[in-house]
């Protein structure tokens, strides 16, 4: 797959089929992921793949509860605003994300595979993100949808570490939970605020020197 196609179309694909992901596909995803950079090439990471039904069923109520907490805390204001003005484009977009996030909350145990990334003694926690994104791009190349989530590590780290047998006394810290599965929908280009509106040159809030009103992929003929 063309790299730009993967970069433009790796969306948050929460709605997936229960079909299992073959082991050789998982192997290719993880082999690509560990090629990612880490600070000082320390590779202070571990990746825990969870496909055991009983384990997923233990995690599912925690995940569902965490989704609820998300709307009651971080996004409470935005949700109230979106519900008050449901026809605003921003509200439509927010409510769409909420619906999709709730789907994952309601169907967690049906998702075939989760990837839990962990770091050890990484004070910034940032060294794991290139590997996580590489895994998600490799999954995209395999036709597998993914969604990075952080709510379990935020709201229930101790409970999840206990369920997964993580040796936290050795400094291992959960950095998220990525759902993986064959999508029920289709791939599309992510809609975002244009690059020129969020990129400056040399000085804060200056013109970057280019303007892109439409995504540059797929290339126009
Ligand atoms: C660091 C990070 C944390 C995220 N946490 C969650 C989460 O806890 N739950 C969830 O459903 N989605 C989560 N997401 C997914 C975002 O909501 C999603 O990437 C965003 O809405 C853009 O989706 P799109 O690419 O389909 O447009 C997270 C994404 C990132 C990058």
Overview features:
221 residues, alpha+beta, NADH Oxidase, five-stranded antiparallel sheet, 9 helices, 5 strands, globular, binds flavin mononucleotide
CATH topology value: NADH Oxidase
**Series of secondary-structure elements, N-terminal to C-terminal:** HHEHHHEHEHHEEH
Q: Mind telling me which CATH architecture this is?
A: 3-Layer(aba) Sandwich
How widely separated are the two ends? 19 Å
What features would you describe in this structure?
- The chain has 221 residues and is of the alpha+beta class.
- The protein has a single domain, classed as 3-Layer(aba) Sandwich (NADH Oxidase), CATH 3.40.109.10.
- It has 9 helices and 5 strands, in the order ααβαααβαβααββα.
- Strands 1, 2, 3, 4 and 5 form a 5-stranded antiparallel sheet that branches.
- The protein is globular, with a radius of gyration of 19 Å.
- The model has no long low-confidence stretch (mean pLDDT 96).
- Bound molecules: flavin mononucleotide (FMN).
